[in-house]
Amino acid sequence: MEERFDYNEAVAELEKIAARVEDPATGLDEIDRCIKRADALIGRCREYLRTTRDQMETL
Protein backbone atom coordinates (compact mmCIF):
# COMPACT_ATOMS: atom_id res chain seq x y z
CA MET A 1 0.00 0.00 0.00
CA GLU A 2 1.40 3.38 -1.02
CA GLU A 3 1.64 6.06 1.65
CA ARG A 4 -0.45 9.19 1.19
CA PHE A 5 1.62 12.10 -0.09
CA ASP A 6 1.25 15.39 1.77
CA TYR A 7 2.57 18.28 -0.30
CA ASN A 8 2.72 20.70 2.63
CA GLU A 9 4.72 18.24 4.73
CA ALA A 10 7.11 17.70 1.84
CA VAL A 11 7.67 21.44 1.44
CA ALA A 12 8.27 21.79 5.20
CA GLU A 13 10.80 18.94 5.08
CA LEU A 14 12.55 20.56 2.10
CA GLU A 15 12.87 23.77 4.10
CA LYS A 16 14.46 21.85 6.99
CA ILE A 17 16.81 20.10 4.57
CA ALA A 18 17.87 23.46 3.09
CA ALA A 19 18.65 24.77 6.57
CA ARG A 20 20.75 21.68 7.38
CA VAL A 21 22.69 21.93 4.12
CA GLU A 22 23.39 25.63 4.73
CA ASP A 23 24.66 24.93 8.27
CA PRO A 24 28.48 24.94 8.21
CA ALA A 25 28.49 22.23 10.90
CA THR A 26 26.77 19.72 8.60
CA GLY A 27 29.18 17.09 7.35
CA LEU A 28 29.57 16.00 3.74
CA ASP A 29 27.95 12.61 4.34
CA GLU A 30 24.89 14.29 5.84
CA ILE A 31 24.76 16.78 2.95
CA ASP A 32 24.83 13.87 0.50
CA ARG A 33 21.90 12.20 2.31
CA CYS A 34 20.04 15.53 2.38
CA ILE A 35 20.50 16.07 -1.34
CA LYS A 36 19.24 12.57 -2.14
CA ARG A 37 16.18 13.02 0.09
CA ALA A 38 15.51 16.48 -1.37
CA ASP A 39 15.71 15.07 -4.89
CA ALA A 40 13.14 12.40 -4.02
CA LEU A 41 10.83 14.95 -2.39
CA ILE A 42 11.09 17.36 -5.31
CA GLY A 43 10.19 14.55 -7.69
CA ARG A 44 7.11 13.69 -5.65
CA CYS A 45 6.12 17.38 -5.44
CA ARG A 46 6.40 17.77 -9.21
CA GLU A 47 4.31 14.65 -9.76
CA TYR A 48 1.68 15.90 -7.32
CA LEU A 49 1.53 19.33 -8.96
CA ARG A 50 1.26 17.84 -12.46
CA THR A 51 -1.55 15.55 -11.37
CA THR A 52 -3.36 18.40 -9.64
CA ARG A 53 -3.00 20.62 -12.72
CA ASP A 54 -4.30 17.86 -14.98
CA GLN A 55 -7.29 17.32 -12.70
CA MET A 56 -8.05 21.05 -12.68
CA GLU A 57 -7.89 21.20 -16.48
CA THR A 58 -10.53 18.47 -16.75
CA LEU A 59 -13.02 20.36 -14.58
In short:
The protein starts with 6 loop residues before the first helix and ends with a helix.
Q: What value does the average pLDDT take?
A: 95
Q: Could you state the order of secondary-structure elements as H and E?
A: HH
Structural class: mainly alpha
Taking the sheet with the most strands, its summary is:
none
Helix content: over 70%
Shape: elongated
The oligomeric state is: single chain
Low-confidence stretches: none
Strand content: under 5%
Number of strands: 0
Describe this structure in words.
This protein is mainly alpha-helical. The protein is 78% helix and 0% strand. Helix 1 (7-22) packs antiparallel against helix 2. The mean pLDDT is 95.
Brief descriptors of the model:
59 residues, 0% strand, mainly alpha
List the helices and strands and how they pair.
Elements: H1 7-22, H2 28-57
